[in-house]
């Protein structure tokens, strides 16, 4: 869906008479930036809906809700799409399943997301030393407790 929207932005820029590569790219970026908030709002709504449904569903044991025993992760594969940077990838973590301290915002400048996945694996009982490239795991799992 997102790739189709980006292709639509490119086609619209060309239809509107933009022929030079940098002008087409600038027009595409402008159109994508205008639609990204809509896309993100849709994903946020879906994420919130899932969290709400899990919070409303009691555990069969009677010990809290399903959300209390689940970790939801909403993230992107890139820090910034148009430059394909791997720096500062946004992540939202929600739920009580991993034992992480929730209800806060962290800014971890230039910390590879591999370390987040190490922390998630550790919360599930897996003592991985690396996740993906070993050099991106230096420092080990993030301490999110």
List the helices and strands and how they pair.
Layout: H1 2-15, H2 21-56, E1 72-75, E2 91-94, H3 114-123
Antiparallel strand pairs: 1-2
Helix pairs in contact: 1-2
Explain this structure.
Helix content is 41%, strand content 6%. By secondary structure, the chain is mostly helical. The chain has a two-stranded antiparallel sheet with strand order 1-2. Helix 1 (2-15) packs antiparallel against helix 2 (21-56). It is flat, with a radius of gyration of 19 Å.
Q: What characteristic shape results from the CA principal axes?
A: flat
User: What string, H for helix and E for strand, traces the elements in order?
Assistant: HHEEH
Question: Number of domains in the coordinates?
Answer: 2
Using DSSP, what is the number of strands? 2
Any idea what the radius of gyration is? 19 Å
How would you state the average pLDDT, rounded? 81
* Range of strand content: 5-15%
Intertermini distance: 36 Å
Which structural class should the secondary elements be placed in?
mainly alpha
Summarize the structure.
It is built from three helices and two strands, in the order H-H-E-E-H. It is mostly helical and 145 residues long. The chain folds into two domains: 1-59; 71-145, no CATH class.
Descriptors:
145 residues; mainly alpha; two-stranded antiparallel ribbon
């Amino acid at each position: 869906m997102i790739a189709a929207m980006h292709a639509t932005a490119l086609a619209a820029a060309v239809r509107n008479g933009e022929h030079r590569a940098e002008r087409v790219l600038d027009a595409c970026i402008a159109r994508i930036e205008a639609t990204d908030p809509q896309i993100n709002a849709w994903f946020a709504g879906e994420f919130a809906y899932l969290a709400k449904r899990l919070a409303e569903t009691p555990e069969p044991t009677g010990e809290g809700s399903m959300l209390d025993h689940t970790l939801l992760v909403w993230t992107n594969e890139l820090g910034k799409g148009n430059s394909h940077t791997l720096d500062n990838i946004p992540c939202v973590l929600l739920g009580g399943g991993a034992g992480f301290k929730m209800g806060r915002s962290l800014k971890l400048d230039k910390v590879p997301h591999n370390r987040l996945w190490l922390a998630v694996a550790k919360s599930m009982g897996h003592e991985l030393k690396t996740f993906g490239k070993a050099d991106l795991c230096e420092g080990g799992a993030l301490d999110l407790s």
